[in-house]
């Protein structure tokens, strides 16, 4: 039987995981396995919001920066934090949504509506890191 790391067992520690997803689907699989480690597990709506948030951030990094250099997830009793690193120093730009569906423009506002905190920071190797936090 596999023992799952529970936040309740280690209250002073964060649960943290890192991956290098090649697609939004890879990132969603990573989020599901991360959420399953947490005790208590996040509610279904929180997990769905986390999946949507990570999927959007990873898809945007792949589309606009060409790659995701790292996806970090961490959680404590109060919040879940997401850090998506990519090689481009160009920050995300809010655009008018394209109702025809060909140019997007919906993702960045959605990220801001899902997260309680969003920041764009210089990345460790010249790109950027988009940080977002959700209430646990």
TrEMBL record:
Residues 84-106 are annotated as: Disordered. Keywords: ATP-binding, Kinase, Nucleotide-binding, Serine/threonine-protein kinase, Transferase. It comes from Streptomyces tubercidicus. CDD domains: HATPase_RsbW-like. Residues 23-130 form the Histidine kinase/HSP90-like ATPase domain. This is ATP-binding protein. InterPro entries: Anti-sigma-factor_SerPK, HATPase_C_sf, HATPase_dom. It holds the Pfam family HATPase_c_2. GO terms for molecular function: ATP binding; protein serine/threonine kinase activity. The keyword Kinase applies. The keyword Nucleotide-binding applies.
């Amino acid at each position: 039987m596999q023992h799952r790391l529970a936040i309740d067992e280690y209250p002073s520690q964060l649960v943290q995981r890192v991956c290098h997803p090649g697609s939004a689907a890879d990132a969603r699989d990573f989020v599901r396995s991360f959420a399953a480690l947490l005790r208590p597990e996040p509610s279904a709506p929180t997990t769905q919001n986390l999946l949507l948030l990570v999927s959007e951030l990873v898809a945007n990094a792949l589309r606009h920066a060409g790659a995701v250099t790292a996806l970090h997830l961490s959680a404590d009793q109060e919040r879940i934090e997401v850090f998506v690193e990519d090689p481009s120093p160009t920050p995300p730009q809010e655009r008018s949504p394209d109702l025809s569906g060909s140019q997007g423009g919906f993702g960045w506002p959605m990220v801001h509506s899902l997260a309680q905190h969003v920041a764009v920071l210089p990345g460790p190797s010249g790109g950027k890191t988009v940080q977002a936090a959700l209430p646990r």
